[in-house]
Amino acid sequence: MDLVQKEHERVLRRLKASHVLKNVQSTIDILQSARDNIAADPSQTAATMAKLHNPVKHSFDNINDSLKETHSGLNKYTKSLDKLFKDRPLPSSELDALSNQEQLINRAIAMHLLREGQFSVAATFLSEITDQKSMLEEEIVSRSNLQTSNLFNIDEVPSTEIRKQFASMYYILHELKEKRNLLPAIEWSRENRESLAARGSNLEFELCRLQYVWLYYNKSLEPTDSPGNWQAAVNYARQEFQSFGPRYLPEIQKLLGAMAFIPNIQGSPYAATFNNPTAWEDVSQSFTREFCSLLGLSADSPLYIAATAGAIALPTLLKLQTIMKAKRTEWTTENELPVEISLPPSYLFHSVFVCPVSKEQATDENPPMMMPCGHVIAEESLKRLSKGGRFKCPYCPNESHCKDARKIFL
Amino acid sequence: MAAELTSIKLNPESHIILDQPLLRLPNDLARRNFKSVQRAVEREEKYILPTLLEMNYGSLLEESESESTQEQTLSTLDNMLSRMQGLKRKMQTLQEEEKRIQTQSRKRIQHLETLHKIPTLADVKYDQWSRVRLDRLLVDHMLRSGYSESAKQLAEERGIEDLVDLGVFMQCQRVVESLRRGETKEALQWCGENKAALKKSQHNLEFELRLQQYIELVRSQDQTKKIEAIAHAKKYLVTNQETQNKEIMRAAGMLVFTQDTRAEPYQTLFSTERWKYLSDLFIKTHHELLSLPSQPLLHIALSAGLSALKTPLCHSAHTSTSSNSSSSMGSSVCPICSTELNDLARKMPYAHHSKSYVAGDSIVLPNGRVYS
């Protein structure tokens, strides 16, 4: 990379210092002055012409020299690129298993744009998709009247409903982040109180707590030592905190207990609640997560996570591809990648169970089974070990019958 | 802990596999640009220097300074001057173009350079960088699918115009559209501009285009048009006899068929599907010439990513306990389980794991579900 940068800098410098245009101009000047001479004094024609060839040739040589220099610079830069990308062939089509799933990809992109808040781009994108589709349809209809109807019915581009949902999410987030206005978020969480509670979410309380702190500080960003607007806060607490009932009682007690320390909250045991610099960020993050999961979506754009994971996985997969080509072996496990790809821990979303006996991953067909001793192996291993009867756990001295093993769900 | 550290290490050199076209394309454009500068200079040189010599000899031999020779000299010089002025203008625009390309390259190199300053994959900066990359991949995908307007808008909103090749793809798209409409003019013009580079290409795009022109002439069944077609074939097709002999024979055979024939291969030759074939061929040739990968990079990244993330649980018949985990601060919904990608990932292989990964203090509930 450093080499590439260096060579490119050289190319740029050369470009800036290029004399080509100047040399072209000087050629023009020479020709012009010769022409003027001849026009002014016809008797000098032969002499002028005789003298003309060499300087013109010279300036052309100059042009060519500086071109040659540029050329060698470009060549060196190309070579440095070759070196940088050596052993790293362009990913070939063999890795692309998605080329005939255009429809689904476009849907994913449209959803991604929506959830990133790029509503206008999303709108353009969707309208361009429909335009192209109708164009294709027309073409096909005009060519032949064969089964066109069911060809294009598979579009499930995001409905206007989802678009509306995301628009309201961005409105709430905007109010929250830019204007420090928690009310729309609180209102939303009240509307969805039941489904949020089913998820065990604390969102509504978190929002109200922040509102309480926000009122106490008199809606200013800087936590101050001076006693804040405690009356507003306490009034708010009286009004709102009742509904949170016993579940949040300890938290509410803390919030109200803090009022006793009003002159010096920062030095009190309650400072952490009142002086949390990431509070707003946290709340907007958990709001986004809850909002998306109520729609059945993950909080981060799946497209983003998948593409990033892909970029992390690609070097390994490409290496695998070259090795397989060199050894002419085929990939035998059709459903499973042949190599392990180490992704950062934040990219692990499910529990993974690998049978300690067979070293195979548990699947629906081969689920994990727990023996009475509490150790878990895959069903196939269990069958093989027990042969239908009593057997010893491969991990501890306990013996059990295969009937006693229970299927577990991760 | 050690395993955790290796899994988040960022190796920038191998991480930029997807970003080759980012630097390659401007470099190819710069080289092409340079070649046209070189050609222009060469052409003028080849004209001016010999002419000057000739005139020199002429004036030496004749020694007569008659009016006519002098006027001739002047007009030749004027001609040279105007040609040089033309050269200068041309070179000015080419140099502007080169400057534009190279500043763009500079920005792209800087973009890749930032990756080298990011130590781990867990870094916030990596997240930002990766988001820019996703935007680039999206724009690339949109451009390739012909959604130019969306691509432009997205690039503008994200401020990544210098990192994507709007111009190149839009030009390509224009030619493709003209081919779909049944016009060969723009495609042939493109062939003319890239004649030298096309010689190395294994696809004979130009021949196929000329053949299509011929087919269109034959299609009409008009006698004069047919004669025109034969002349056209003599001029453009027969010159490729060495490599395309079979096709030329077939083309000749077409003369006795009408377009509603059911005899092969003439039916295929007359078919309007051929325009689709031509536009695909054009895209292929165009991308190869500019060393662009034939697939959208988004596809490649996604198919690798989907597999790397997928677990057998993602399409399991039983709802997974961990995917809808209800702890509000816990892990978020798995991207593969999310509705956007679930169908897409259905046919992909799942990731290979050699170690179990279960949260530390899991409890098996009486119904067999694991709570963690």
Automatic annotation (TrEMBL), chain A:
Hydrolase in keyword set: no
GO molecular function terms attached to this record: ubiquitin protein ligase activity; zinc ion binding
GO biological process, one term: proteasome-mediated ubiquitin-dependent protein catabolic process
Subcellular location: Cytoplasm
Zinc finger (RING-Gid-type) boundaries: 355-396
Assigned keywords, A-Z: Cytoplasm, Metal-binding, Zinc, Zinc-finger
Any one GO CC term of the record: cytoplasm
Domain RING-Gid-type: 355-396
Pfam families to which the protein is assigned, alphabetical: CTLH (PF10607), zf-RING_UBOX (PF13445)
Transmembrane segments: none
Gene3D superfamilies per record: Zinc/RING finger domain, C3HC4 (zinc finger) (3.30.40.10)
The keyword Cytoplasm is assigned to this record: yes
Top-level lineage group: Eukaryota
Record family assignment: Belongs to the RMD5/GID2 family.
Entry-linked PANTHER family: GH10162P, MACROPHAGE ERYTHROBLAST ATTACHER-RELATED
Identification of the protein by name: GID complex catalytic subunit 2
Organism, as annotated: Penicillium steckii
UniProtKB/TrEMBL annotation, chain B:
Span of domain RING-Gid-type: 334-372
Entry keyword NADP: no
Segments forming domain CTLH: 168-225
Chain coiled-coil ranges: 77-107
GO cellular component: cytoplasm; GID complex; nucleus
GO terms of biological process kind: proteasome-mediated ubiquitin-dependent protein catabolic process
Zinc finger (RING-Gid-type): 334-372
Keyword Zinc-finger: yes
A Pfam family the protein falls into: CTLH
Protein function: Involved in the proteasome-dependent degradation of fructose-1,6-bisphosphatase.
Name listed for the protein in its UniProt record: Protein FYV10
Provenance organism: Penicillium steckii
